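Hello,

Our lab assistant flagged a job as stuck in the queue for most of the afternoon. It eventually completed. Since we weren't sure the result was trustworthy after the delay, we are filing this so someone can double-check. Below is the sequence as submitted and the structure that was eventually returned. Let us know if re-running is recommended.
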Amino acid sequence: MSVPDSAALARAVPASRSETLRDYLTLMKPGVMLLVLVTTAASMWVALGQAPHPWTLLLTLGGTLLAGGAAAALNHVLDRDMDAAMPRTSRRPIAAGRVQPIHATVFAIALGIASFVLLYTQVNPLTAYIAVAGLVYYVGIYTAWLKRRTPQNIVIGGAAGAVGPLIGWAAATGELDLAAVLMFLIVFFWTPPHFWALAVVLRDEYAQAKVPMLPVVAGVEATLRQIYVYTWVTVAATLATAPLGGLRWIYALAAVGLGARFLRMAASLMARPSDALARALYGYSIVYLFGLFTAMVVDVTLRQVWAMLSG
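-- returned structure --
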């Protein structure tokens, strides 16, 4: 007697409304989107030198969430075969058969259109164009092309996940400048050590799914050297952002302290390779990015408070 696979079983058992809603929320990758929203909001604070208007902030974050959710949902659609082959991702809604690809595609298109209309009409056209460019790049360049063809997929594709600061700056000022580019570069250079640390842990799963991640193609030692180099570049970008982005000692201290630990962990991993240290570096890299952009907001806010009290 044959046993039905998980995807067939999922199609055979109707899902409750709450389960369906949860699956569609999962398609939007809320964990990833939280990082994008934090970098978007922080760049608005830095661009204005003060807290943005709450309504503008809400509209910008809403439009960014919709655009990112659209990109993530299409990523689920295009990667469904890859996800099904990896234990870590095999329970994702499309890979497990709980959401049909056509339904997810329609959902993503609706999110993308809503994002563009919202940002274009309620924020400004530049913000809308940047958001849709990030969506197209993530889906068309990274997911559909780079991810399956080159071990440098994360490096080149990292530009898509780094658009948050550009969106926020454009929303706040209607233009872009050097500080916005530097904040973009922080996330861009941070992406390889962040994802490669996880790829080291999951190298066997990526090999099974035939994804040419760097640890699979070049080996663990080469990957760890690249992680160390990109960590240095990331920290350098964060330090350059202090004077060139108009940030002061609170952010500078945070950048030095957080960066020093990031470098120590990357060096330890390179000296003593292990899955435990790689997983720890991956986890810390998330704390690192949150900490940096939170420090930007604190720096600007305290400076604003000080100006009000001294004025």
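-- support follow-up --
The delay was a queue issue, not a problem with the job. The result is valid. Confidence is low (pLDDT under 50) at residues 6-10. Residues 275-310 form the longest helix (36 residues).
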